[in-house]
Fold this protein.
Amino acid sequence: MNADKLNQLRIESDKKQRPQGAFWTIIIVVLAITAIAVFFAWPRAKDSRRQLASAATNSAASSSATADSTTNAPAPPVDDNVVLTVSGYIINRQRIELSPRFMGVVTWIGVKKGDVVTNGQVVVLLDDSEYKAHLAQADGDVASAKANLDKAQLDFDRVNQLSTIQSKQEQDDARMALEAAHAQLKSVEGARQVIMTYLDWCTIRSPINGVILEKLVEPNELVTPQSFGGTRGPSTALISLADPKDLQVEIDVNEADVSKIYLDQKCHVSPEAYPDKTYDGYVAEIAPEADRAKGTLQIKVQIQDPDKFLTPELSAKVEFLKK
């Protein structure tokens, strides 16, 4: 029984041989792959030229990047005399708003925004009909006072001529009547002068040579020298103007840099809109009090010889000089 089982497990000799076709197929595939790898790995002249061209290109790109970085690098400060550079805003040193001296109605306004005006030029007229009527009345009062004065003078002269006959009481009465007439005339002449002043105030003139910054009223509009509250009250200003030749730069300087600035210090001013233009200036004002919240101190730099390129409320760069 054991012999039968052993005979069943025995492998016949013709079945022990492996198939040879599959073995040679594997060998051929391996050799083909090796040949292809050797072909592509072998150095050629074309590859050398390609490597040289690539190296040249990379070198040029590196040189260009170096040149660009050199070009974009911040330039060193040109002027060693500059101790501090700060930006601020151009302002009018003095902005004037013309207001009426009394409540009235605008009858004429002869300027508009941007107009150039001269000192003493009439810019606004207010209704003066009421004051002209008061003037006529005052003229009548003056004439009456002059007549009374003339009569008192005649009475006084007559009493003095008859001094030997008239009593002392009559002489004193005549003298006092004459003095009262003089006083009455001065009073009515003073009242007339007040009315003339109001008439003059109805004609509003420019107090400076300058430019109209804003036109705030129109003809037939009621104006008043003070506001009564609310948003629909009469206007309190007629026009605003400023001198375009009197400009400053207002700057907020950090408290750490305040020690570098002093009054009358020379400066260079360049408007941001025209950085190629430079104007001379000097420190005209240093605020007596700092801004605690911002940690800054306000400085005002007066611009010397400004021109049309300096526009108020635009920004400007200020360089503070050592000397």
